[in-house]
Design goal:
The structure holds two protein chains of two kinds. Chain A is of the alpha+beta class. Chain A has four domains: 6-80, 2-Layer Sandwich (Uridine Diphospho-n-acetylenolpyruvylglucosamine Reductase, domain 2); 87-205, 2-Layer Sandwich (Uridine Diphospho-n-acetylenolpyruvylglucosamine Reductase, domain 3); 209-310, 2-Layer Sandwich (Alpha-Beta Plaits); 316-417, 2-Layer Sandwich (Alpha-Beta Plaits), CATH 3.30.70.100. Chain A is 37% helix and 22% strand. Chain A is built from 15 helices and 21 strands. In chain A, strands 17-14-16-15-19-20-18-21 form an eight-stranded antiparallel beta sheet, sandwiched between helices. In chain A, α8 (220-232) packs antiparallel against α12 and α12 (330-341) runs antiparallel to α13. By secondary structure, chain B is an alpha+beta fold. In chain B, 36% of the residues lie in helices and 21% in strands. Chain B contains 16 helices and 18 strands. Chain B has helices spanning 4-14, 23-28, 49-61, 114-123, 140-146, 153-156, 191-195, 229-241, 254-264, 284-301, 311-322, 324-327, 347-361, 387-406, 425-428, 431-444, and strands at 19-20, 42-44, 65-69, 85-89, 96-100, 105-108, 126-127, 163-169, 175-179, 204-211, 213-214, 218-226, 248-253, 274-282, 304-307, 334-337, 364-370, 375-382. The chains are: A alpha+beta, B alpha+beta. The interface between A and B is large, with 90 and 94 residues. The complex binds flavin-adenine dinucleotide (FAD) (2 copies). The site of one flavin-adenine dinucleotide has 31 residues of chain A, from β4, α5 and β12.
C-alpha cells in the first residue's frame, strides 16, 4: 500500500518532517482514509517538489492546515501546512499582510490586533483554522453583511498547481481588474486548483468601539421578529444573531430561553444611541433581561460564547442543515419550518444569522437529512433562497425540473477542475457532486 | 458578410427592427470609449434570455463569433468587433424585474442603465454602490463585464462585491444560474466571481442579482486645495493612518483644475497643484469627529480646506470632477485614458512617474485619480489626426503601464484589458497565471466564440 517513495520525500523536506508510523500520523489526520505518509513542508519549493513527486508516482495528495482530511486517500500523501506559519510582512501603509497558509487564524488575529488592525473573516472553527484553510473554504460569517465574505480579503497569493508549477498572482492594490479574476475565483476551491503557499491579505483599521446588546425570549418567533423590526427601522448592526434555547445555554451559561445577540463594531459616537434603540426594540418585542454590554471582557465573553456554539455545530456537518432566505423572509421561514420540525425552541439546535438570512439546524438523532433537505429547500425557494452550497443548487435545479441546468453547472465545475488537475492529484476528498 | 439565411433567421428570432446589417447602422457599433474601431458583420438586440439562447445556437451552427455590448462606454476596446463577428447588444433588455429593499437585493436585466437603477433605488432609500463616473450611460451588464469601480471603492469595494448571482448563457447555448439572491449560494466554485470582470469572454449575462444597501444616513463632503500634488498624497496617507475609511478620495492635478475651470467655473484656484475631494458617510453622530480629524490633517498642509455646508456646495465641489474627462477636449481634440493602479504607498511615486513620462515623451498629461485606491487616470492629450503624435502617445502610454508594474501595481484598476492593454498582460502576469486564465477560458468556451481575442489570446 505504501505507494509513496518515502526516501524521496525525506530528501525533499528532511527526515523529521516525514511521518509514516501510523500512531504518529494519527494526530495529523482526520477521517477514515488511509494515507501512506504525512509530510510537513517548510517552504514553497518543497511543496512544489512534493507535488511533482506525486505526479511522477501518480499518487494523490490531501492538504490540511493543522490536520488533513483523509477522505479519498488510500495510500498517497497527507500534506500538513503547519510549519509554514510565518507572517512575512505587515504593511500598515497599504493595510495588507503577507502570510503563510499554515498560520493559525487565531494567531494571525492576535498579531493583527497588536498592529492596531482588523481581519474580519471569522471561521467557524476559531481554534484550529489555518489562514490557508479559511481562503480554501471561503464562505461568509455573521459579520459579512458589514465586511463582506472571506474573498473580499484576498488580494493575491502564491499557489502550487496540481502539476507542481508555482503560480503567483495579485498585488497590494485594492482595485485590480487585470486578466481574469483568478484571485477571487480560487477562494473556495478547497485545494482543487492548487495549494496556497502564500497569501496577500487585505486588512482594515481596527474598530475602536465595540458594544453588544443581548436579550432572551420565551418564543423563538418573537425573538426573530425583532430582527425584522430593526431592518424596517433601517438599523444594520454588525451582526444580529439568534440561538434557540437548547444552544443558548452553551453560549452563556445559565441562559433561559432563546438568546438574541446583536453586535455593534465601529459606530464610535453613534453606538450609544443605536444600542439604546436596539434595546428598546428587543424589550418591546417581548425580550427579558435585555442588556447593553460595553465592558470589554463581558463583550468578548458573549462573542466567544457565540463562536463556541458555532464551532460545535461546524464539527458535525452530517448532523446540520443550512439554508438561506431573504433576511426579511425569516419569520415566514421559521413558521413554515415548524410544520416540518416541530417546536423550534426545543429543537436540538437553531442558529439564525439575521442579516444574512441564514439558518443552521442541528438535527435530532436519526433524521433523514436528505429527505428533510428536499423539503426545506422547497420552503426556502418559496422565500427567495435555498439550501446552502452545491446541494442547494442541485435541489433547486431539481425543483425547477431543470436537469439540464444542473448538468451544465456540474459539467462546467468538473471541466474546470480537470483543466487544472488533469491527473486528479489534489484533494481527492473534495467532491463536486452534491 | 452574413448570409441572407442567417439574417432572416436572426430577424425571426428578435424581430426585423432589432437586426442591423447596413453600413451606416453598423458604424455606430464599431466604436467604444477608445479610439479603436472595427466593423461587425451584424448587430442583433435580443429582448429575452430565450432569444439570446437562440442567437447563440444559430451563431454556433454557422461558426460566427459574438461580441457582447452594453452601452459601449468601456475604455479598453472590449466591444470592438474584430474577428468576423456579430455584436449582441443588450440595450433592449432593460427590465428591472424586482427591487426588494428589505432583503437587500434587486434583480435586473443587463441592459439596465446604472443611473436608471439608482433612481429607482433612491426612491426606496437604497442604492447600488458601484457608480462608475459613466453611470448615466453605462449598463449593469457592462459594469459586470468590466468589474467597474468608481469614486466610492475605498470604502465600498467594486462591482464584484455587489453581485450575488447571475443568469448566464454559456457559449454552448445552455443557461446556468450562478449564485443566487443571498450570500453563500454558490455551487462549489464561485462562478459568479469569475464571470464578473471577464469582459464577456466566458458567458453572456442575461440577468443580474445585485446587492443593494440602504443609503447612508449622513454624508460630509470636503475639499482640500494644495500647492503640490505630493501634499495631497500625504493627506491620503495621513487619513488612512488615522483609521478613517472615507468613501471618496478623488484627486485632480493642476492641468485638470484648469480645464475643468474653463468648463464649469466652479471657482478652483488655477494656480493650485492639486485638489482632493474627500467624502465620509455613516451615522450623523459619527460624522463630526471624522471631519474634525480630517480637517486637522488637511489644515497642516493644504493651502485651503473647506467643508460643504449645503447640498449646493456639495454639488459645486463635484461639478469639476464630473466634467473632468470631457473638459480636456478644449486643450487637444483627443485623449487617451489610462487606468494604472499602484499600492497606495506608491501613489506619490506614481505621480512623479507620470510627470517623468510626460517630460520624456514631450506629451501633455493630466491626472485624475481615485487616490485612496492608488488608481490613477493619466489623460494623455493629443491630436488623433497627427500620425506621428499618435505613435508618441502609444509609447508614452506603454511607459505609464510599465511604470505602474515597476511600482508593484497593475495596468488596470477598473477599466479592463480588452484590446488596448492586452499587449501588457505578459509583463504583468507570469506564464503560470496566464496559463490559469487560458484553462478557465477553455473550460467555458473551448471554441473561442465569445468576445474572441479580448483580454488575451486563447
Ligand atoms: C468566514 C468563514 C466562514 C466559514 N463558514 C463555514 C461553514 O459555514 N461551514 C464549514 O464547514 N466551514 C466554514 N468555514 C471554514 C471552517 O471554519 C474551516 O474549518 C476552516 O476555515 C478551515 O481551516 P483549516 O485550517 O482547519 O482547514 P482544513 O480543514 O485543514 O482544510 C479545509 C479545506 O481547505 C483545503 N486547504 C487547507 N489548507 C490549504 C492550502 N494551504 N491550500 C489549499 N487548500 C487548502 C483543504 O484541502 C480542505 O479542502 C468558514 C471559514 C470562514 C473564514
Ligand atoms: C466618461 C467615462 C467615465 C468613466 N468612468 C469610469 C469609472 O469611474 N469607473 C469605471 O470603472 N469605469 C469607467 N468608465 C468605463 C466604462 O464606462 C465602464 O467600464 C462601464 O462599466 C462600461 O459599461 P457599458 O454598458 O458601456 O459596457 P460596454 O462598454 O458595452 O461593455 C463592457 C464590457 O462588458 C461586456 N459586456 C457588456 N454587456 C455584457 C453582457 N450582458 N454579458 C456579458 N458581457 C457583457 C462587453 O463585451 C465588454 O467587454 C468610464 C467611461 C467613460 C466614457
Amino acid at each position: 500500500m505504501s505507494n509513496v517513495n518515502i526516501s524521496k520525500l525525506k530528501a525533499i523536506v528532511g527526515d523529521n518532517n516525514v511521518i509514516d508510523s501510523p500512531s504518529e500520523m494519527a494526530k495529523y489526520l482526520k477521517g477514515k482514509g488511509k494515507p501512506a505518509v504525512v509530510v510537513l513542508p517548510g517552504n514553497t519549493s518543497e511543496v512544489s517538489s512534493i507535488v511533482k513527486l506525486a505526479n511522477e508516482q501518480n499518487v494523490k495528495i490531501a492538504v490540511g492546515g493543522t490536520v488533513a482530511g483523509t477522505k479519498g486517500l488510500n495510500g498517497g500523501i497527507a500534506m500538513v501546512m503547519s510549519r509554514m506559519n510565518r507572517i512575512l510582512e505587515m504593511d500598515h501603509l497599504n493595510l495588507v499582510a503577507h502570510v503563510e497558509p499554515g498560520l493559525l487564524h487565531k494567531e494571525f488575529l492576535l498579531k493583527v490586533g497588536e498592529a492596531g488592525l482588523n481581519f474580519p473573516p471569522e471561521p467557524y472553527e476559531v481554534e484550529t483554522s489555518s489562514i490557508g484553510g479559511c481562503f480554501a473554504i471561503g464562505d461568509s460569517d455573521s459579520k459579512s453583511f458589514e465586511y463582506g465574505p472571506t474573498r473580499t480579503f484576498l488580494l493575491g497569493f502564491e499557489m502550487v498547481l496540481p502539476t507542481g508549477e508555482i503560480l503567483e498572482i495579485g498585488n497590494k492594490c485594492i482595485k485590480n481588474v487585470s486578466g481574469l479574476d483568478f484571485i477571487h475565483f480560487a477562494v473556495g476551491s478547497q485545494g482543487t486548483f492548487g495549494i496556497f503557499t502564500k497569501l496577500l491579505v487585505k486588512l482594515l483599521p481596527v474598530q475602536e468601539a465595540k458594544r453588544a446588546v443581548i436579550g432572551t425570549f420565551t418564543s423563538i418567533h418573537k425573538a426573530n421578529a425583532t430582527f425584522n423590526t430593526l431592518i424596517k427601522r433601517n438599523v444594520q448592526p454588525t451582526r444580529m444573531n439568534l440561538l434557540n434555547a437548547s444552544l443558548a445555554k452553551n453560549a452563556i451559561s445559565g441562559t433561559e430561553g432563546q438568546l438574541v445577540i446583536i453586535d455593534l463594531q465601529g459606530f464610535k459616537e453613534s453606538g450609544k444611541n443605536i444600542a439604546n434603540e436596539i434595546a428598546a426594540v428587543l424589550t418591546l418585542g417581548g425580550g427579558t433581561d435585555v442588556k447593553i454590554i460595553e465592558d470589554e471582557a463581558e463583550y468578548d465573553q458573549v462573542i466567544n460564547g457565540w463562536l463556541k456554539v458555532r464551532a460545535e455545530l461546524n464539527g458535525k456537518p452530517e448532523q446540520t442543515l443550512e439554508f438561506l432566505v431573504g433576511p426579511a423572509k425569516m419569520p415566514q421561514a421559521l413558521t413554515q419550518l415548524e410544520a416540518l420540525t416541530g417546536d423550534l425552541g426545543a429543537y436540538p439546535g437553531v442558529v439564525v444569522e439575521g442579516l444574512l438570512g441564514y439558518v443552521c439546524l442541528a438535527l435530532p438523532e436519526g433524521t433523514d437529512k436528505l429527505a428533510l433537505a428536499a423539503k426545506v429547500n422547497k420552503l426556502a425557494m418559496s422565500l427567495g433562497g435555498n439550501i446552502k452550497g452545491l446541494l442547494g443548487h442541485k435541489l433547486k435545479a431539481e425543483a425547477y425540473n431543470d436537469a439540464e441546468m444542473w448538468q451544465q453547472t456540474i459539467g462546467l465545475l468538473q471541466e474546470l477542475r480537470q483543466q487544472f488537475d488533469p491527473k486528479g492529484i489534489l484533494s481527492p476528498g473534495v467532491s463536486l457532486e452534491a | 458578410m452574413l448570409s441572407q439565411t442567417v439574417v432572416n433567421r436572426l430577424k425571426e428570432i428578435v424581430g426585423e427592427k432589432n437586426v442591423v446589417t447596413d453600413k451606416v447602422g453598423l458604424l455606430t457599433y464599431g466604436y467604444d470609449g477608445t479610439l479603436l474601431s472595427g466593423e461587425a458583420l451584424g448587430v442583433v438586440s435580443p429582448h429575452t434570455t430565450e432569444e439570446v439562447v437562440e442567437i447563440v445556437k444559430l451563431m454556433n451552427e454557422h461558426n460566427i463569433k459574438l461580441v457582447p455590448r452594453g452601452a459601449g462606454t468601456n475604455e479598453s476596446g472590449g466591444t470592438i468587433p474584430t474577428q468576423d463577428s456579430v455584436v449582441i447588444s443588450f440595450t433592449k433588455m432593460t427590465k428591472i424585474h424586482e427591487i426588494d429593499t428589505e432583503n437587500f437585493v434587486a434583480v435586473v436585466e443587463p441592459g439596465v442603465i446604472n443611473f436608471d437603477l439608482q433612481v429607482e433605488l433612491e426612491k426606496r432609500n437604497c442604492y447600488f454602490p458601484p457608480d462608475p463616473s459613466s453611470y448615466k450611460a453605462s449598463t449593469i451588464g457592462g459594469n459586470v463585464g468590466e468589474c467597474s469601480g468608481g469614486p466610492k471603492c475605498f470604502k465600498y469595494g467594486v462591482t464584484r462585491d455587489y453581485i450575488l448571482g447571475l443568469e448566464v448563457v454559456l457559449p454552448n447555448g445552455k443557461v446556468i444560474q450562478t449564485g443566487g439572491r443571498n450570500f453563500q449560494s454558490e455551487p462549489a466554485y464561485d462562478l459568479t466571481r469569475i464571470i464578473v470582470g471577464a469582459e464577456g469572454t466566458l458567458g453572456l449575462v442575461t440577468k443580474v442579482f445585485v446587492r443593494i444597501i440602504p443609503l447612508p444616513r449622513a454624508k460630509k463632503t470636503m475639499l482640500a486645495i494644495y500647492d503640490k500634488v505630493e501634499d495631497a498624497s500625504q493627506t491620503v496617507a495621513d487619513i488612512v493612518a488615522a483609521g478613517i475609511i472615507p468613501t471618496t478620495l478623488e484627486l485632480m492635478d493642476n492641468l485638470l483644475i484648469n480645464t475643468t475651470e474653463d468648463f464649469s467655473h466652479a471657482g478652483l484656484p488655477r494656480d493650485a497643484g492639486a485638489v482632493l475631494i474627500i467624502e465620509v458617510d455613516g451615522y450623523p453622530e459619527d460624522m463630526d469627529p471624522q471631519v474634525k480629524t480630517i480637517s486637522e490633517i488637511c489644515n497642516k498642509i493644504a493651502k485651503e480646506f473647506k467643508i460643504a455646508q449645503s447640498a449646493a456646495e456639495v454639488d459645486q465641489i463635484w461639478t469639476s470632477r464630473r466634467c473632468a474627462f470631457g473638459s480636456v477636449a478644449r486643450v487637444r481634440p483627443s485623449y487617451g485614458v489610462n487606468d494604472i493602479t499602484v499600492p497606495r504607498s506608491n501613489f506619490p511615486k506614481a505621480i512623479q512617474g507620470v510627470l517623468k513620462v510626460a517630460k520624456e515623451y514631450g506629451v501633455t498629461i493630466g491626472v485624475v485619480a481615485h487616490a485612496g485606491d492608488g488608481n490613477l487616470h493619466p489623460l494623455v492629450l493629443f491630436d488623433q489626426r497627427n500620425k506621428e503624435e499618435v505613435e508618441t502617445v502609444h509609447a508614452a502610454e506603454k511607459a505609464l503601464c510599465m511604470m505602474a508594474l515597476d511600482l508593484d501595481g497593475t495596468v488596470s484598476g477598473e477599466h479592463g484589458i480588452g484590446l488596448v492593454k492586452k499587449k501588457y498582460l505578459d509583463s504583468e502576469f507570469t506564464p503560470a497565471a496566464m496559463g490559469a486564465f487560458r484553462k478557465i477560458k477553455r473550460s467555458f468556451d473551448p471554441s473561442n466564440r465569445f468576445n474572441p481575442g479580448k483580454v488575451f489570446e486563447l
